[in-house]
Amino acid sequence: xxxxxxxxxxxxEAVVALWWDSWHSIRSGLRHPLPLSEWxxxxxxxxxxxxxxxxxxxEGAVVGFAAADIAxxxxxxxxxxxxxxxxxxxxxxxxxxxxxxxGGFSLRTLADNLTARAFYDHHGLVAGDACISEVNGMxxxxxxxxxxxxxxxxxxxxxxxPHGWRGPPGGRASSETAAC
Length: 180
Known about the structure:
The protein is of the alpha+beta class and 180 residues long. It has four helices and seven strands. Helix 1 packs across helix 2 (36-50). The longest helix is centred in the first third of the chain and has 15 residues, at 36-50. The chain is globular and about 45 Å long.
């Protein structure tokens, strides 16, 4: 049975391995320029101390995770083990992000990540600007989710903004990337 729970320190190896493997499964031949050791360092030194993190666990195994920099309304990571995709795990992780950042949020994904882009489109996120990731040097696409006004909430889709979303009132955008 699927459970989305708060990240614990003992999840680190499973989460970093999932992150590395999932990222490299985006398309055949995709290689990140940084070694796995740098991903471990980044996870431990940059993500864990500064972000809210949840894991999706199924029968004792970590099958997905999400991390968010709540202060700047950015979903920095959302990954599901490839063989567990299309089972509602990503939807549950995205729901956590929406509950955690009810005023809206942004994320970035690789332009090549057609599976993730279709997922975000399906779940009401709006594609915006493209840029080159500072982490991996690859093209990314910004997506945003903005909740509907209360009277339209039954529709369950995001508002489309003409020039991309830049955070909630008083918030600021971040250059942190979701899929890098």
